[in-house]
Amino acid sequence: MELVLVVLIGILYATGIFLILRRSMVKLLLGIALLGNGTNILIFLLGNIVKGSPPIIGENVNILREIYADPVPQALILTAIVISFGLTAFAIVLLHRVYAFLDSDDLDDLNTPDEDI
Amino acid sequence: MLFTVLLGFIVAILPAFLRKVVKTRWLVLLAIVPSLIFIYYLFQLPAIASGSVLKQSTDWVPSLGVNLSLRLDGLSLLFTLLISGIGIGIFVYAYEYLKKHRYIDRFFTYLLLFMSAMLGLVLSDNLLLLFIFWELTSLSSFFLIGFNNESEGSRKSALISFTTTGMGGFFLLAAFVLIGDIAGTYNLSELIDQGNIYYEHPYYPLIIAFFLLGAFTKSAQFPFHFWLPGAMKAPTPVSAYLHSATMVKAGIFLIARFTPILGGQTMWTAPLLIVGGFTMLYAVVNSLYRTDLKSILAYSTISALGVLTFLLGVGTKTGFIAAIAFIIAHALYKASLFLVTGIIDLKLGTRDISVLGGLGKTIPIVAFSAVLAALSSAGLPGSFGFISKDLIYEATLGSTIFQPESTGHYLLIGLAVLTNIGLVIAGFLAGIRPFTGTPSTKIKLPSKIYINYKLWVPPFILATISFVLGMLPHLPSHKIVDPAVTSIHNSITSADLALWHGWSVVLALSLVTLAAGSALYFMIKPSHDKEQYFAKWQVASPQNIFAGITDVFKTMSMSITNFMHNGFLRSYTFKIILFAEILFVYLLWQDGPIYIDYSQLSSISIYEVITIIILCGALLLLLLSKSRLTAVVATSVVGYTICLIFVFYSAPDLAMTQFSIDTLTVVLFVFVLFKLPPFLSFKNLKTRVRDSIIAIGFGVIISLITLKVMQQPFSSEIKDFYANYAYTLAKGKNVVNVILVDFRGMDTMFEIVVLSIAGLGVYSLLKLRLKSSEKE
Predict the structure, then answer these.
(1) B401 in a domain, yes or no?
(2) Chain A contact for B665, CB < 8 A?
(3) I need a surface site. Which of A84, A106, B419, B711 has the fewest CB within 10 A?
(4) Is this prediction's pTM over 0.90?
């Protein structure tokens, strides 16, 4: 499964980069989101993935023993997901704003807006 | 001593604040500043003449070895007297010359800045301090040359001179750093005491090359001489002060100052002799066919600077005496010739000697100073010029670089004689030609011209001093020349300047020079035709070559900027990613092969395969879709499948978060963007293929890096820490939650702050209504 995930990270990155290189602002945004997802899986993979044993301490014990998933990458990814949501949300609204100004989501139209307004 | 340097800087700020006051006639009071400095240094004369060296030091940046340390010895004293003494005249003259100019306040700020910087330069006892003042003189010179900033020629000349001297400054700094590094100190006095400890060092040639490049650019030696004629675009008092009497001599000063430190070797004297010798002849020939008075003076100044370099290259004690005497003589007569030229220019509006003539009757007092100065420059017996010319010949005859009576020796003498004949002619052309003969019919001369005393007194005094010193040569001999030579030659000197040396070869050469120069003067008639004829030869001149190099640099940087900074985001991204790929590939290749430990891998189940297939399908849809909505939905499908992967691999919290965030994102997207036009799609196959290659390449690299990282041994230290203490310390069963809200609670709080700010941004951007005028 690890190998599959490794390939998946590559695919997510490749797609993300390809989208970032487009002229459309929406594609740019989606591309960034994909890069974020790819990175999350990358971090996830680094903590040695484990099936069916979440890092939750049982009813009657005080310490996690035996095999359990690494909680550190999970905490990191959780933060990353939330922050990237903040970024995406703000970017979406910004995009909306640009569209309201320019009636376009072409990045090239942003180059010399001052002369037009 | 420090105060004399700082005084000018302090006063220089004043005109900026006292604009109203400054533009009145009280401005002339600024001449008090150089006067005070001049008097101060005059009082230092006896002490320095008796052989002592005054030092003063204040900490500035002690950690870098930069201190405000000053040193007053014979050489510095000579220059301080020249700077402040000529400065008095220049300040008075410049006030009258520019009093109608709207930026006169600025002018005096620059001039004061220059004067202080120049004083600092000659007094510095620290290499880095010296460099700072060196650059300050270049800077103030830049502002003064470009003073008439409405004129394109002025701006261009200012830039040329600044780049040339600035470039030299860089080399000089390099030389200073090398010297300081080898000697272990930046203190000039210590360096002088150490003497030449470098001549066996492998960097010695490099130090000399860098050092001389710095000095030659400043002192306008061939092939860097071209900035000086251009600098004549500055107001005439500036030309007289900076570009003839003081600043251009900074390079000479520096060579003299470093003679005890770097000199005494053929590697030092040879370039000085060659460059100085060539410059002095080349420039004087160039001065003879000019019609512009200031051009003639500029080229003869370059020639004089060449003579000084040449004399320092001769390297004998007589050579140094001759150099010092010539510095004084040249500063006096050249400054007064410049000032006279300024008067003619101001009153008649032309500096063209092919039309000027007969001014002797209209402005006799000015003519008198001009003729005195010209005679001093020609070396008429009785003038200080005569004494210095004698010394030049004496030094050349006594030079030790060639065997006496060898061809090389005669060559040097011939060079000196030819140059001096040329200088005689140039001096006469500038100082006598406009005042004799008849004026051309092209200009109308007024019968009577009123010249304010502020204009004619400074050149008059300077020219008179030339003759006073010439008649009484023992006056400067012991007080000024001896100590100055002592500080170059490091031995007690007695120059014994005298008017009469008896019948000798030197006297014969002097008289021959004077006679030949006077005779040739009557034969030369500068005209515009001749000037244009010679201008044809300028194609291969250093100035054009340098201009060509500058142009190449300009176009090069322009094309680099256009390529790198073309204004298209995707082009930037493309370059960045391509560069990153090259770096990563290189690192991966360096790092060796990748191993995969198959025993450590976990198995794969049918659910996972299906999930991955859905994910890939969604990505494909995203890439191919022409509708924005489909693309957004496809992205959210990608998010949901990743959410499933989190579920499979024991990360319930991540799955929850990913799920809710994905849903929110889609909702926001749809709410905000549903009315946007369809996707842009540009069917440029070539671009798409190129981008695909780059993108796939990056994906592969990331995968390889991931494999590489998985190869690293896994440390479970942190993991175990949280497993052990999540409940015992923080009383929480869900370890991930405990990390977020307890162990790393502060981080989470800031995360919330970031989110709130983003939320506020979103809210305000949505609420903000466009005014109709803002809408395109």
Answers:
(1) yes
(2) yes
(3) B711
(4) no
Residue among B739, B755, B775 whose CB faces A82 most closely = B755
Q: Judge whether B12 lies within some domain.
A: no
- β-bridge partners, B187: B126
Beta carbons of B719 and A92 less than 8 Å apart: no
**Chain A neighbors of B680, CB-CB under 8 A:** 22-24, 105-106
User: Are B428 and B548 in a shared domain?
Assistant: no
B746 and B669 belong to one structural domain: no
Please determine, for residue A113, whether its predicted confidence score (pLDDT) is greater than 50: no
Contact check, Cβ <8 Å, A21/B694: yes
* A88–B680 C-beta distance less than 8 A: no
Residue B691 forms contact with A (CB below 8 Å): yes
Same domain, residue pair B505 and B545:
no
Predicted local distance difference test score (pLDDT) of residue B676? 66
Chain B (696-715) residues lying within 8 Å, Cβ to Cβ, of chain A = 696, 698-700, 702-703, 706-707, 709-710, 714
Confidence bin at B267 (pLDDT 50/70/90): confident
3-state helix, strand, coil in chain B (%, to 5): 75, 5, 20
Classify the phi-psi angles of A34: left when phi > 0, otherwise alpha if psi is within -120 to 50, otherwise beta. Answer: alpha
Positive or negative torsion for Cα B52, B53, B59, B64 = negative
Number of residues that make up chain B: 776
Nearest to residue A14, comparing CAs of A45, A38, A30?
A38
B650 and B772 housed in the same domain: no
Q: Under an 8 A CB cutoff, do B654 and A74 touch?
A: yes
Lowest mean pLDDT segment, chosen from A72-81, B517-526, B728-737? B517-526
pLDDT at B130: 92
Does residue B597 sit within a domain?
no
B550 touches chain A (CB under 8 A): no
Is A1 in Cβ contact with B602 (below 8 Å)? yes
Domain containing B648 equals 616-681
User: pLDDT band at A112, cuts 50/70/90?
Assistant: low
> Could you tell me which residues come within 8 angstroms of residue B296 by beta carbon, excluding any fewer than 6 positions away?
B287, B288, B290, B353, B426, B429, B430
What's the pLDDT at B675?
A: 66
In our burial notation (b when 16+ CB lie closer than 10 A, e otherwise), range B603-625 reads: eeeeebeebbeebbebbebbeeb
Tell whether A64 is within 8 A of chain B (Cβ). yes
Share of chain B above pLDDT 90, in %: 18
* Structure confidence at residue B134 (pLDDT): 92
Q: Give pLDDT tens digits for B596-637.
A: 877 777 788 888 899 999 999 999 998 888 788 888 889 999
Whether B550 and B500 map to the same domain: the answer is: no
What is the C-alpha R_g of chain B? 38
Number of A/B CB contacts below 8 angstroms equals: 272
**Cβ contact A100–B775 (<8 Å):** yes
Per-residue model confidence (pLDDT) at position B314: 86
Residues 13-42 of A with CB under 8 A from B: 13-24, 26-28, 30, 33-34, 37-38, 40-42
Spatial separation of the C-alpha atoms in residues B579 and B205, rounded to whole Å:
40
Asked if A83 has any chain B CB less than 8 Å from its own CB, the reply is yes
| All domains of chain A in start order, with CATH | 2-116 (1.10.287.3510)
CB–CB contact B570 A23 (8 Å): yes
How far is B648 from A41, CA to CA, in rounded Å? 13
Packing angle between helix B74-98 and helix B317-348, nearest 10 degrees?
A: 0
Return the pLDDT at A114.
Answer: 46
**B751, A71: Cβ pair inside 8 Å?**
no
Query: What is the mean predicted confidence (pLDDT) over B39-53?
Result: 85
Three-class SS state of B281: helix
> What would the mean pLDDT of B709-734 be, rounded to a whole number?
84
Contact B758 A86 (CB under 8 A): yes
pLDDT confidence of residue A117: 38
The tally of domains found in chain B comes to 4
The minimal CB distance from B672 to the residues A63, A92, A107 is found for: A92
